Amino acid sequence: MIYKLTDEQIAPFPQYVKKWVDIAVHRPTRDIDTVTNNVRWIYDQLGYDSNKISVQIIDSLDQWIEITGSQVQSQVGSQVQSQVESQVESQVGSQVWSQVQSQVWYRADDIAYGDFMYSQGFIKDNTELFYKWADVISDAGMAIYTEDTCYLLAKPKVLLDTAGNNHSDREKAIKWGDNSGMYYLHGVRFEEDLWQRVTSRTMPFADILAIEDIDQRKQAMKYGSVWDFVKHCNAKEIDTYTKVGSDGRQIRYWLYEFPATTDMFPNGAMYAIYDDSMLGAAETHAQGVPKECRTVPEAMSWKQYITAAQWEALELDKHFT
């Protein structure tokens, strides 16, 4: 029984999380023959006649909910899960899981942990069963095993922010083939109506403050009036900058530092605020930038992947409009 790993032994674990997150997010569900063969192999190992097993891949969240509402997972499903889990649990103490659990993500947790333990040689029994199970799970968002049918929820299209959270302010962040799915803003789930109101950027700030769910309210604040947001957070102006076009048109830029607060920014934040550069537009935008930025050129150049000097050299109406 393994009770504790050294720091050196744990060090490779993030690579396994990244591997399975990439598979979960970027690799689509494979062809039905590949998936069916993997599922039937598992049924064979559990003593069932795999030739009698039907495999159904459901590419619709709504249809999945309808099916799972009428289907109760039989003892087959618990057999699959328990056999896989028992291999890990019987040879690895719970303390080991506690050492790495903060690094896991969604369904990548069980698979990455198991892959790590097998690949590093900490577990050696039933290797093929684990990887067949992982193969099935990597092709599906969810799976239900019954005695005659295996239902697999096809993997949806998933959109993430730079921190790896489910996120999109343009469409469903998680979406299946029939357009069913879920809305998220930086990892926080929204119902469609509230998501639409928030992302329209026209929701009154008083209505935003009235949102009961604190996580939703925190995200919605970022889509409300920029200046109401600045005032509410008691942000401090760090720098300003103005670009002037050939006809005298001005675009204004600000850099604001937001203090650490429990409800918004536990570690503080830095935001670049700027006028919309499109002719005829009257919007003001805000975007988070690294806290190391201390000037507008540093913040805006980071946003555009150029140097601060290169950004300062950009001329309104000549290099951008």
Strand content: 15-25%
Distance between the termini: 65 Å
- Low-confidence runs (pLDDT<50, min 5 residues)? 83-107
Biggest sheet, strands in spatial order? Answer: 4-5-6-7
Largest sheet: 4 strands, antiparallel
Q: Can you give the helix content as a percent range?
A: 40-55%
Per DSSP, the total helix count is: 14
Helix and strand composition category: alpha+beta
Element order, helices and strands?
A: HHHEHHHHHEEEEEEHHHHEEEEHH
Q: Strand tally, please?
A: 11
Explain what you see.
The structure is a single chain. The chain has 321 residues and is of the alpha+beta class. It has 3 domains: 7-154, no CATH class; 156-224, no CATH class; 232-313, no CATH class. Helices cover 41% and strands 19% of the residues. It is built from 14 helices and 11 strands. It has helices at residues 7-10, 13-26, 32-45, 61-70, 75-89, 94-100, 108-119, 127-138, 192-199, 205-209, 214-221, 226-233, 296-304, 308-313, and strands at residues 54-58, 140-145, 149-154, 157-158, 174-175, 181-185, 188-190, 236-244, 250-258, 269-275, 284-289. The strands form 3 sheets. It has a 4-stranded antiparallel sheet. Strand 2 and strand 3 (149-154) form a beta hairpin. It is elongated. 27% of the residues are buried. Mean pLDDT is 82; it is low at 83-107.
What is the topology?
Blueprint: H1 7-10, H2 13-26, H3 32-45, E1 54-58, H4 61-70, H5 75-89, H6 94-100, H7 108-119, H8 127-138, E2 140-145, E3 149-154, E4 157-158, E5 174-175, E6 181-185, E7 188-190, H9 192-199, H10 205-209, H11 214-221, H12 226-233, E8 236-244, E9 250-258, E10 269-275, E11 284-289, H13 296-304, H14 308-313
Parallel strand pairs: 1-3
Antiparallel strand pairs: 2-3, 4-5, 5-6, 6-7, 8-9, 9-10, 10-11
Helix pairs in contact: 2-7, 3-8, 7-8
